[in-house]
Amino acid sequence: MGLDNVAVQWPRTGRFYDPVAPAEFVDFGTLAERPDLPGPAAALADHIAKTGTVRATGYGELVDLLLGLDGVLYATEAAAEDEDPVIDPDGCAWIAGGLERFVAGHRPLGEEVTFESVGAVLRRALEGSRLADQQLRWLDTRLSALHDHSGEPPQWSFTLTELDILARFYRRCAERGFAVYADF
Hints:
This protein has helices at 27-32, 39-51, 60-67, 76-80, 89-106, 115-126, 132-145, 160-175; strands at 4-9, 53-55, 86-87, 112-113, 158-159, 178-183. The protein is an alpha+beta fold. It has a domain at 4-109 and 162-183. The radius of gyration is 17 Å and the shape is globular.
């Protein structure tokens, strides 16, 4: 079973969160129909348009690395406090902003997003910062921790357009005051 991030009404008005009508995301369907869109990006856009949901399992490690926390898309911080696993609109804006900055930083490297290209973008973003040495050591530790027991890195294969569409989902939620419920 995987993780779905479901757009829901914020704040909750009763015992349960009400899902946002997929009509709020219908324009993602137009994106999915573009002939130049890579397959994974088209599939993601189509799914969002039909359901108002992102199947988030495959993006978890990447988003955690980009944002420097664990369990971001699982809303684990809220769950740890015995709250519902929900990302509020401000949290959606934060996720969207991080993804948008990454997409912009990766653009010069091309459409294919791999573990190696992610590391290169993050290193470039940290170089020259006030605490660059400390942050680069932290990044190296995070990247090393993602290798498997035999020392192999994750075999990520995302398209930049796919991550842009993911960012647009969270940005839409933030702009319209929706939250995202982590359903797993």
